[in-house]
């Protein structure tokens, strides 16, 4: 039985583990966090990704957890409503379509449960990779060394496997000039499946109720012409950055800033893309944000990771020889069109037509 080590138990990793297990592989996942990571905002499943969920047998669970947003409004500095609609939201696009919006942590829990055939090791990370013609020797941070037939980096925008196998992030990252934080707060605005957005210049908030309405998710972001260096593990420093850029905003800023300092699920990152000529080298390949992050502006990061996992497993399952090349070949156009969504309309959303075209620009059948 061929063995595969997957780095990262976000979205792509567990979906890949599900399919590889079904294709007869022995799969191990290593996740740096001590447990499945909470937090994050609503993410979307569109087009081909909905079909992947259906084929995995998890679509009903996903639909049961959909956010069911009713609409959104925009407010000015003083909290006066300047726009209101029940047709679309900024996070999900049109509300009457087949797309599925779900909180990231709900989707993480569903895909983690679907990866049941794989062994998941939490709280560890790969420290070295050495490959030869027959396999990959992997050394782990917590000690220990194991040999696998293949290694897949599904470890996100700041991929560790990419750094070890291809070189430093700066060679592949393309910054889109925005930084975004996401965190939970008590629902002091009494939102019921509703979003409110407030923007002044290139900084602002998006706030919406999480399922059940007990809490809201706050999305506080700001623009920066030059990339900002920050420590990806230093949450305090990241909160200080958000405060520095958002505390002069109006509306509910004092309460939203207070909630940020109290939040234990704070997430912060640059809106950035990853562009690489190849996602694979020898027996190592990359999946999802690690290889072809489209950024949260594309609204398609989750769909790309799910579809990439399906196609990669399908190709490995069909014939191991040349599988990574065929995976790249089948995914390239799909990835390009989805990455282009993030930059089609700077400061706004891509057209519905482009989103639809990008979401379905791949065949799931060989
Ligand atoms: C906590 C969190 C919140 C997010 N919130 C949003 C959001 O609100 N909106 C949005 O559009 N996108 C968000 N994202 C990104 C979004 O989930 C991805 O764009 C998309 O789901 C693609 O999935 P992925 O599996 O490629 O990467 P991710 O979902 O980012 O998963 C990567 C996984 O790899 C793990 N990892 C990182 N480094 C290592 C390492 N050295 N060793 C082992 N494991 C490692 C991470 O902990 C994570 O579990 C978030 C990601 C995270 C981790």
From the N-terminal CA to the C-terminal CA, the straight-line distance is: 23 Å
| Main beta-sheet annotation | 7 strands, mixed
Count up the helices. 11
Class inferred from helices and paired strands = alpha/beta
Count of extended strands: 20
Compounds present?
flavin-adenine dinucleotide
Total domain modules: 2
- Strand fraction: 25-35%
Looking at the structure, the CATH topology of the largest domain is FAD/NAD(P)-binding domain
Q: Provide the CATH superfamily of the largest domain.
A: FAD/NAD(P)-binding domain
Cα gyration radius (Å): 20 Å
> Globular, elongated, flat, extended or rod-shaped: what is the shape?
globular
Would you identify the CATH architecture of the largest domain? 3-Layer(bba) Sandwich
Spans of at least 5 consecutive residues whose pLDDT stays below 50 are none
Q: State the helical fraction.
A: 25-40%
Order of strands, widest sheet:
5-4-15-16-17-14-18
Molecular structure report:
The chain starts with a strand and ends in a 7-residue tail after the last helix. The strands form five sheets. It has a seven-stranded mixed sheet. With 366 residues, the protein is of the alpha/beta class. Helix 1 runs parallel beside helix 9, helix 6 packs antiparallel against helix 7 and helix 10 runs antiparallel to helix 11. Strand 6 and strand 7 form a beta hairpin. The longest helix has 22 residues. The chain has two domains: 224 residues, 3-Layer(bba) Sandwich (FAD/NAD(P)-binding domain), CATH 3.50.50.60; 96 residues, Alpha-Beta Plaits (2-Layer Sandwich), CATH 3.30.70. The chain has eleven helices and 20 strands. Bound molecules: flavin-adenine dinucleotide. The site of flavin-adenine dinucleotide has 31 residues, from helix 1, strand 2, helix 8 and helix 9. InterPro entries: FAD-bd (IPR002938), FAD/NAD-bd_sf (IPR036188), FAD_aromatic-hydroxylase (IPR051704). One of its GO terms (molecular function) is FAD binding. It holds the Pfam family FAD_binding_3. It comes from Nonomuraea montanisoli. This is FAD-dependent monooxygenase.
């Amino acid at each position: 039985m061929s063995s595969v080590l997957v780095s990262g138990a976000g979205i792509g990793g567990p979906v890949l583990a599900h399919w590889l297990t079904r294709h007869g592989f022995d799969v191990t996942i290593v996740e740096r966090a001590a447990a499945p990571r909470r937090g994050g905002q609503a993410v979307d499943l569109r087009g081909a990704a909905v079909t992947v969920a259906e084929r995995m047998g998890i679509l009903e669970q996903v639909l049961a957890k959909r956010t069911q947003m009713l609409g959104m409004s925009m407010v000015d500095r003083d909290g006066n409503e300047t726009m209101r609609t029940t047709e679309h939201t900024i996070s999900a696009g049109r509300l009457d379509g087949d797309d599925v919006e779900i909180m990231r942590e709900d989707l993480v829990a569903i895909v983690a449960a679907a990866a049941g055939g794989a062994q998941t090791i939490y709280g560890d990370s790969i420290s070295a990779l050495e490959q030869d013609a027959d396999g990959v020797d992997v050394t782990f941070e917590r000690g220990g060394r194991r040999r696998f037939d293949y290694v897949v980096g599904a470890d996100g925008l700041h991929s560790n496997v990419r750094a070890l196998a291809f070189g430093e992030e700066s060679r592949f990252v393309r910054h889109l000039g925005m930084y975004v934080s996401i965190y939970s707060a008590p629902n002091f605005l009494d939102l019921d499946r509703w979003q409110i957005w407030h923007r002044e210049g290139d900084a602002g908030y998006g706030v919406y109720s999480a399922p059940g309405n007990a809490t809201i998710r706050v999305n506080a972001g700001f623009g920066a012409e030059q990339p900002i260096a920050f420590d990806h593990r230093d949450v305090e420093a990241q909160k200080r950055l958000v405060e520095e850029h958002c505390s002069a905003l109006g509306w509910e800023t004092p309460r939203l800033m207070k909630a940020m300092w109290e939040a234990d699920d704070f997430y912060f990152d640059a809106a950035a893309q990853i562009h690489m000529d190849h996602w694979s080298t020898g027996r190592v390949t990359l999946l999802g944000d690690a290889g072809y992050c489209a950024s949260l502006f594309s609204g398609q990061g989750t769909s790309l990771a799910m579809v990439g996992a399906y196609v990669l497993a399908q190709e490995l399952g069909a014939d191991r020889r040349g599988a990574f090349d065929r995976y790249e070949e089948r995914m390239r156009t799909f990835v390009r069109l989805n990455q282009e969504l993030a930059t089609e309309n700077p400061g706004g959303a891509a057209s519905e037509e482009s989103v639809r075209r990008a979401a379905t620009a791949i065949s799931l059948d060989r």
